[in-house]
Specification:
Layout lengths: L1 H15 L1 H36 L3 E6 L16 H13 L3 E9 L1 H11 L17 E6 L6 H8 L4 E6 L1 H43 L1 H9 L4 H42 L8 H27 L6
Antiparallel strand pairs: 1-3, 1-4, 2-3
Helix pairs in contact: 1-8, 2-6, 2-8, 2-9, 6-9, 8-9
């Protein structure tokens, strides 16, 4: 009997506020879709950082007679200078064990010819014009500044290059895009919360006399709030399901079917990250339904 009454009351509430309920569903759908996209963007940036930062090497290019670096004096780097540079690199606490590799002029010239094999520039460059270099792997790719500053001023060093100087601007832009998505999603989630609160407030106001009678006959607060709670939870679940479906379609068609096939060098988010994001989306959707419902209906429970 009680269950029949609750379900009947739920049906009446949905009919009375059908347009508002649809608006709540759409708002939750859009806001959770953007929120889930922001979560996946966060995961994607972390995957890209992990994929590239672990492969970062510091390249220390040595002087040639044509070099203009501050550690060069218009002459080739001497063996004594090379030994000193290597010693500083190997004794640096941030250098990974067995993480120092030497590239000779011959090796650099072979790499150059492979890279520009179809370009006429190959015929204008000789092996003597190549630079010897040290390639260094770090224990922690985030800790690169100490080694760069220790090596950059040594005699015989022309330039020191670190891939981070090219990757950091990219990741900063991605981080701004990610936080922009979070901000947009946050505004929409607030809008959804307010819309749910207004919908429940209108429903409770329309049935305030019924609520007063139920309160007088001894009905518990939770029993009175339950139809309103179910109404909000139903709208939130429908919106969350639509949002999760949208997110899975985006991942499948845009990432799995296209991006992964086109840009194989990147590591992309997949089913695991998407499943984790959808779980968070469902939880957020339920919180959006439950919290404003309890807060909004409290004032109508007093006789």
């Amino acid at each position: 009997m009680r269950l029949n009454y609750i379900l009947s009351d739920l049906g009446i509430g949905l009919k009375r506020n059908l347009s508002m309920t649809i608006a709540v569903v759409v708002t939750i759908w859009v806001s959770l879709s953007l929120f889930g996209s922001a979560l996946l963007a966060h995961e994607q940036v972390n995957l890209m950082k992990g994929n590239w930062y672990d492969k970062i090497q510091i390249s220390v290019f040595l002087c040639t007679k044509d070099s203009g670096g501050r550690g060069c004096s218009g002459a080739e780097v001497t063996q004594e200078q090379k030994n000193r540079i290597q010693q500083v690199i190997e004794q640096n606490p941030d250098t990974a064990p067995d993480g120092v590799f030497t590239e000779s002029k011959a090796q650099a010239f072979d790499s150059f010819k492979k890279l520009y094999k179809d370009s006429p520039i190959v015929s204008t460059v000789t092996q003597d014009q190549m630079q010897e270099s040290f390639r260094i792997r770090l224990k922690d790719p985030q800790r690169y500044q100490n080694l760069v500053s220790a090596v950059a001023g040594l005699p015989g060093v022309d330039t020191v290059q670190d891939l981070r100087q090219y990757l950091d601007p990219l990741f900063k832009a991605l981080n701004w895009l990610q936080w922009g998505s979070y901000a947009g999603a946050g505004l929409l989630l607030v809008a959804a919360l307010m819309q749910i609160a207004n919908t429940i407030r209108l429903a409770a106001y329309a049935r305030r006399r019924e609520i007063g009678i139920m309160r007088l006959v001894g009905a518990s607060n939770f029993y009175i709030q339950l139809p309103f709670l179910l109404e909000a939870v139903l709208a939130a679940i429908i919106g969350a399901v639509l949002a999760c479906g949208t997110l899975w379609m985006i991942v499948y068609f845009m990432i799995m079917q296209r991006a992964q096939e086109t840009f194989r060098v990147w590591q992309w988010v997949g089913a695991t990250e998407t499943f984790r994001a959808t779980l968070i989306m469902v939880v957020v959707g339920l919180v959006l339904a439950v919290v404003p419902t309890f807060l909004t209906t409290r004032k109508y429970l007093k006789v």
